Amino acid sequence: MYPQDQQYTKQHEWVRLSADAGVIGITDYAQKELGDIVYVDLPRAGAKVEQGKVMGSVESVKAVSDIYSPLSGEVIEINDALATAPEKLNESPHGDGWLVKIRLSAPDEVQGLLSAADYEKYVAAEETGH
Q: What are phi and psi of 112, to 5 degrees?
């Protein structure tokens, strides 16, 4: 269900790595929990993000939720399409709804992230309350 080429956090973000960079987004589980997303607040290019720290937020009809960076680095690109079409996060959270691209400053941090299989187990346990 979740792409195997991505790593996951327990806060429901994902990162897809390539060389010294990573693309970050929120998971399908997160967008379902949020409901219809109406606004996305992202860091600017050049901003520094830290693993586990807030890097932005998404606003849905239900609530505003923080987005936590899965890895540390510098933002090198943001998904400008989300400014006018935040619903892309609902439609394609693991594809066109990506949030930012970062240049990694501590690539070893990836070892603390979950694989797709581990994330699926985590979500299943969260849904059943166990």
A: -90, 0
